[in-house]
Amino acid sequence: MSTTPTAAVDAWWQAMQDRDPAALAALTLPDYLSSGGPAGRSLGREALLAEAEAFFAGARIDEWTVSELEVRRHGEVAVCSYSWHESGVHQGTPFVMAGLATDVLVHRDGHWLHQAHHVSPLPS
After folding, report:
1. Which phi and psi (to 5°) does residue 38 adopt?
2. Which residues make Cβ contacts (< 8 Å) with residue 65, sequence separation at least 6?
3. Residue 66: which domain range?
4. Which residues partner with 93 through β-bridges?
5. Taking Cα atoms as reference points, which of 30, 34, 38, 32 lies closest to residue 54?
6. Are 36 and 119 in contact (CB under 8 A)?
7. Model's pTM, two decimal places?
8. What is the pLDDT of residues 89-98, one digit of tens each?
9. Spatial contact of 37 and 51, defined as CB atoms under 8 Å apart
10. Are 57 and 28 in contact (CB under 8 A)?
11. Coil, helix or strand for 20?
12. Distance between CA atoms of 40 and 22, rounded to whole angstroms?
């Protein structure tokens, strides 16, 4: 589990690369929110896991980076803003994506958990 907001962001991307839905479940709150990803918008951890399983079935992330990470802590809540880059293969075709992301994390039981995740892809 993630003991800092930075570790939670890194763990998220590592879980995606590892194709690990159990890790994603452990990193998110049940009422998780997402926008800007492949489904546009998703509500709830179960929706996230269904979308992740569908992605994992036909794609893989070979490399990812997070840079320019800024964390703003407000008690038990942290807002993380960063640039991301990923490359891999989707449906047999190589891809490269990059963009900006914002994660809202909540500190519970000594761990930082994702409440919300938003990505804005940048033009290639």
Report:
1. -55, -35
2. 84, 85, 86
3. 5-121
4. 90
5. 38
6. yes
7. 0.90
8. 999 999 999 9
9. yes
10. no
11. coil
12. 22
